[in-house]
């Protein structure tokens, strides 16, 4: 439950505070041991009390910072939405799509959203981008479709010139919830698809759709979830049926390991893949051009931002909502704007 999540987070923050202070205390203990041995050898040696006091103060300062930073992440950080802009050049982009703007959203996790005012503010930010296309790359919910109900009115305000397209993430299948029957789980899944449709999203399940401008088009390919560590329902071969090899293709696939393991070296070139899933672990340090770090990088090679490989691109969105830890520290919720440009 949400209350349990908050209690668990407070305990977690205290444990982190203790963990931070532990190395400093250990260093102090080593100094004390060294001084003790030294005093036994040389009875005239004196203990440096000032240094001990300094080490104790440093331990207190560093560990106490954990709590305000953590609480900021819980109450403010998870609503610190930011727009990240990418302009990507492609030689094979159809001329009529030069300057085409799409907005990528991911990982709403509606069951973890709370502040309607801040969510509505983010939706206004999205609409102000005046996107040609809005895509959502999975995890609308934590488990149940009912999580979306309080947010239908808000998300129904999303607008794009051409369309709004979504795919499913690992949490959208209800696999992490106990159900009274197989039928209940199937009904939940069916209702989730219906409620997304009601909001205005077309859900692609191993399917594709063309966006057409005059006599030119680009293909949007939507695969079901495929993850190296999760269910592998995504079928890229089925998804690209009836698509020409020369078509410009944008793939929506929730888990970036799909790009890593299959898509980036696939014989049929996928020009741009859009993923989410990692959340950037909702914790890390990012200073553009200086540092980009999160513990999640020990699990996912491609965990946040734009990557390229042999002329093909992957963008991993850091997510809109939160899961488990009800906050964000250093890795803020993301709205990605991608402008497609034709290279000369």
Commentary on this structure:
With about 350 residues, the protein is of the alpha/beta class. It has two domains: about 1-75; about 80-340, Metallo-dependent phosphatases (Purple Acid Phosphatase, chain A, domain 2, 4-Layer Sandwich). It is about 35% helix and about 20% strand. It has seven helices and 14 strands. It has helices spanning about 1-40, 50-75, 115-130, 150-155, 180-200, 235-240, 255-265, and strands at about 80-90, 100-105, 135, 165, 200-205, 205-215, 215-220, 250, 270-275, 285, 290-295, 305-310, 310-315, 335-340. Strands 1-14-2-3-4-5 form a six-stranded mixed β-sheet, with helices on one face. It has a six-stranded mixed β-sheet with strand order 6-7-8-9-13-12. Helix 1 packs antiparallel against helix 2. The chain starts with a helix and ends with a strand. The relative contact order is 0.17.
List the main descriptive attributes of the protein structure presented here:
344 residues; alpha/beta; Purple Acid Phosphatase, chain A, domain 2; 2 domains; six-stranded mixed sheet; 22% strand
